[in-house]
Amino acid sequence: MEEKKLNNSVIKELMEKYKTIWALSHFGSLAHWDLNTYMPEEGIESRAEALAKLAVLSQKMFLEKDFLSLIKKAENEKELNDYEKAVIRLLNRSLKYYQKLPPEFIEEFTKVTSEAHVAWKNAKEQDNFSLFAPFLEKIVELVRKKAELLGYEKHPYDALLDEYEEGLTTEESENFFSQIKEPLKNLISYIKKSPKYKEEHELEKHEYDREKIKAFANFILTYIHYNMKHLRIDLSPHPFSTYIGKGDHRITMRPKDNFAKTYSSTMHEYGHALYDIQTHEDLHYSPIGGGTSLIIHESQSRFWENFIGKSKTFLASIYGEMKKINPEIEKYSIDDIYHYINLVKPSLIRTEADEVTYHIHIIIRFELEKALIEGKIKVSELPRIWKDKYQEYLGISPKTDKEGVLQDIHWSQGSIGYFPTYSMGTALSALWKKHIEKELGKIDDLVKTKEGIRKIQDWLKEKIHKHGATYLYNELLQKSTGESFSAKALLDYLEEKYKAIY
Amino acid sequence: MEEKKLNNSVIKELMEKYKTIWALSHFGSLAHWDLNTYMPEEGIESRAEALAKLAVLSQKMFLEKDFLSLIKKAENEKELNDYEKAVIRLLNRSLKYYQKLPPEFIEEFTKVTSEAHVAWKNAKEQDNFSLFAPFLEKIVELVRKKAELLGYEKHPYDALLDEYEEGLTTEESENFFSQIKEPLKNLISYIKKSPKYKEEHELEKHEYDREKIKAFANFILTYIHYNMKHLRIDLSPHPFSTYIGKGDHRITMRPKDNFAKTYSSTMHEYGHALYDIQTHEDLHYSPIGGGTSLIIHESQSRFWENFIGKSKTFLASIYGEMKKINPEIEKYSIDDIYHYINLVKPSLIRTEADEVTYHIHIIIRFELEKALIEGKIKVSELPRIWKDKYQEYLGISPKTDKEGVLQDIHWSQGSIGYFPTYSMGTALSALWKKHIEKELGKIDDLVKTKEGIRKIQDWLKEKIHKHGATYLYNELLQKSTGESFSAKALLDYLEEKYKAIY
Questions:
Q1: A246 vs B: CB within 8 A
Q2: In the 8-state DSSP scheme, what is residue B26?
Q3: Would you place residue B415 in the very low, low, confident or very high pLDDT band (cuts 50, 70, 90)?
Q4: Are B414 and B137 in contact (CB under 8 A)?
Q5: Helical pair A259-277 and A210-224, crossing angle rounded to 10 deg
Q6: Does A40 touch chain B (CB under 8 A)?
Q7: pLDDT over 90 (residue B82)
Q8: What is the DSSP track for A119-163?
Q9: Quick one: pLDDT at residue B453?
Q10: CA distance B217 to B266
Q11: Would you call B3 a catalytic residue per the annotation?
Q12: Which pLDDT tens digit goes with each residue over B416-470?
């Protein structure tokens, strides 16, 4: 029999105590899922009260003397394995936030971001940046204060990046973005000059029956996934994936997205869910069950969304089901659909961007965030600089702030330092693809059959998922493939694929 | 401005601390709802773990020194109002269970009932009482031990009844059942002799489209209820109602019940939900929000199920919607449907029984439970005595134990002392009906219009719901109507109604 991953007796004792904290997070995840799916509208007040109490209680249990001394005791244990070390690392990581951020700061941050979120929604609806600007100024100020409280070595933005991706630095991100910026700009201008370039595909214009799109999303999951007894899909205003507990994984889709968006978001969220589903069973109920690295998580969601979902052979194998959504689809060949799903065109909205231009959107966010934190630009200058950058990088520029600086929710929630993980996660996905293809053969061939898809799932489980949150993204990559992180695999993939299409 | 119901400063301080315990119960309710509606099948292990931790944590918080001394301090406050006194009463009631039942007892009880529940399911499936008997013997033993631990004045069954209905005694229940037993037996034999008596109604035989039945249940709620922003209906294996928080009320229906059962269970669960919905808003987040008395709760569910749901004028007002379920309904007149919904016939299954014979089922449970607790009968004798009693009281007898002693879930869960609240709650509902009719006019007239239904809802709110769990059932009845509890109103109602039908 294989040895248990968490086997040290002090770690086991620690995990037994941790189980109550885990239980609170279980209920928190369920409550957030419910809030976004089925909760009656007027339940919001009591839900918010309950979640606030849950957060305080969880912090209190983390900081209980017995628990802290058990962490200390575990730290002094010799010969811990990687999983056991990771447990301590992640508990200490949570403790750092609980200990370094004073309750008054958390309270102010929560209050300001709650108000800012409402202000942002209004500002976006009314297309009036000035309604949001004072809140964003306050947020930038608080976020800079947070960086100081948390501490950093070189750059205050490091402390912010670290919150979303443990150990990620400004230097690393900058290095990454400088690798992709020029090659992508060149690729985009190549595509725009292609005779096959078009701004819109006919398939975009059709109306689809919502019930049929839902049925299609359900079909997709039952087709690619091997066990629907631990996975379900529901409707919510924004698609998300959540890991409620062992054997309980849920993703959502928007009620009104068209066929292509539902398809792509379902594949994306499935990738997130599969990572959690395939965590080694010893890691459930521990802080290393599932992933905490946003880069690794995004590498999984983008993997399914882009390499499988946008693959021509995969599209061919689900063509019959697609036609059930709308008889008009029958008029289009697989090549038409493939081109539609892989259409590249500079656009204003990040979440609707294709594989190539997507990263330019992220570069713009990254450059703006860094400059804001450094105090090099002011909040009031954002709309103008935003427009300039879009013009410079993508050759288009939003007419309104609604389609520009006000489009994303992140800043209103105080999430500064999050965006880079989207791009870097996508780059990591291309590295996994490269190694899977080296070991198992072309993904386009594998996805032709359910057995091939299962081989991919097994590879991902073995190399990535089963470890949960044990390793940082670059460690995991090194350990599983022997390669170091870089943007090259992503660039090679995009070049090859899109030069073939265009 | 009206004074707040919970206004004393010590009570307010106590409620602030209680809010965390409330939050845990909020998550517990949500988790149970989810477990019965949407949770993926394989999520059960982690859900059970989380709920077990939640129970322990909740008990721990209850027994924290600060909290206990605050309860003591509140007890010494002078001039508390009824609501404030009820808060202390209910906190002490919870404390009694936490303090008198040792953790080892709770653990054993939980373990035995979990195993017994599985054994009962198997025994029922295989129609083999002997598979369940040893577990039930153990349960009876533990339940008698529980009575000793909790303490009682006259009869050990008092301690068990009290767990489900605060203050209810064996003497009171016996007195109640002795009032109804003979009159109901006489009424049943009157009905059986009527030329209109029939064993089955043609409408029972039709097949119905499930989606249409669901739509009908939704219609019923939007028709009778004034705000669907705080109420929803979903599917679950057994219908139930749950109060998750202020503005968050949910009921369920079975996925495969026929039209009549769905209709009746929806009205029933709505009655439970309305009680919680109409609690005074000052009482949310406190232990007196909603009801804890099963008799009062059942008086609300049975009120909507029987007096409104089975009313001919109400049936007439929803006749158009009924016909949408199945065109064959059109062949039947309102009189036919009224007769179908109010069909009386002795039957074997309690949950399917009509208004008249229902109480006989409860009397049988009550007599058996009391004799078991007194040690006058043995578990092994139950199947035989069960059959004898059904033969004696209803003139029919189950051929199998599946349709007999194994039919109900209660004993397998260790719930002994619960059944009497079903009958007594129904008797209380008839008392409310009597007083509503005295003050507002005939229910059959009121339910003809939405305004009339709203008048009933307002009366229930004013006399019952707004008080939450402040009063015991007999106190509340006295306070709101000046009358004492008895079975007379129930018997008068049944006599009048069913002598008119038959």
A1: yes
A2: H
A3: very high
A4: no
A5: 30
A6: yes
A7: yes
A8: HHHHHHHHT-GGGTHHHHHHHHHHHHHHHHHH--SS-HHHHHHHH
A9: 98
A10: 7
A11: no
A12: 999 999 999 999 999 999 999 999 999 999 999 999 999 999 999 999 999 999 9
pLDDT (0 to 100) of residue B490:
98
At B97-110, the pLDDT tens digits run 999 999 889 989 98
Global confidence as pTM: 0.95
Q: In A375-471, which residue ranges form alpha helices assigned H by DSSP?
A: 382-394, 420-440, 443-446, 450-463
Residue B86 in contact with residue B282, Cβ under 8 Å? no
Question: B408-444: buried (b, 16+ CB within 10 Å) or exposed (e) per residue?
Answer: beebbebbbbbbbbbbbbbbbbbbbbbbbeeeeeebb
Exposure of A199 by Cβ count < 10 A (0-12 exposed, 13-18 middle, 19+ buried)? exposed
Express each pLDDT in B229-239 by its tens digit.
999 999 998 99
pLDDT at A177: 98
Helix, strand, or coil (residue B232): strand
A250: its two tokens: 């849920």
Tokens 């949570």 sit at which residue? A94
The one-letter amino acid code at B230 reads: H
Rounded Cα–Cα distance for residues B502 and B500 (Å): 6
The whole-angstrom separation of Cα B235 and Cα B214 is: 9
pLDDT (tens digit, 9 = 90+) per residue, A351-397?
999 999 999 999 999 999 999 999 999 999 999 999 999 999 999 99
- Retrieve residue A52's tokens: 């606030």
The CA angle B99-B104-B110, to the nearest 5 degrees, is: 100
Q: CA dist A178 to A83, A181, B306, Å?
A: 34, 5, 73
Q: Which pair of tokens denotes residue B98?
A: 């936490």
In this structure, what token pair is assigned to residue A233? 């899909």
Nearest to A275 by CA among A160, A410, A429, A482: A429
Measured between beta carbons, the chain A residues lying within 8 angstroms of B45 are 245-247
Tell me the C-alpha distance between B135 and B105, whole Å.
16
Using an 8 Å Cβ cutoff, are A313 and A335 in contact?
no
Residue with tokens 């059960």: B44
At A235, phi and psi to the nearest 5? -100, 140
Residue B6 · residue B87 · CB < 8 Å: yes
Q: Is the pLDDT of residue A277 over 90?
A: yes
Nearest to B262 by CA among B270, B251, B254: B254
Residue A206 binned pLDDT confidence (cut-offs 50, 70, 90): confident
- CA–CA distance, B311 with B264 (Å, rounded to integer): 12
Check: CB of residue A322 under 8 Å from CB of residue A329: yes
Q: How many CB pairs under 8 A join A and B?
A: 133
Contact B45 A244 (CB under 8 A): no
Residue of B42, B44, B60, B283 to mutate, interface with A, max A Cβ within 10 Å: B42
Structure confidence at residue B1 as a pLDDT band (50, 70, 90):
low
Q: What per-residue confidence (pLDDT) applies to A202?
A: 84
Task: Quickly count: other Cβ atoms within 10 Å of residue B300's Cβ.
Answer: 27
Task: Taking residues B35-62, report their average pLDDT.
Answer: 94
| pLDDT tens, residue by residue, B354-364 | 999 999 999 99
Helix, strand or coil for residue A249?
Answer: strand
Where b means 16+ CB within 10 Å and e means fewer, B92-126 reads eeebeeeeeeeeeebeebeebbeebbebbeebbee
- Residues in B touching A46 (Cβ below 8 Å): 26, 244-248, 284-285
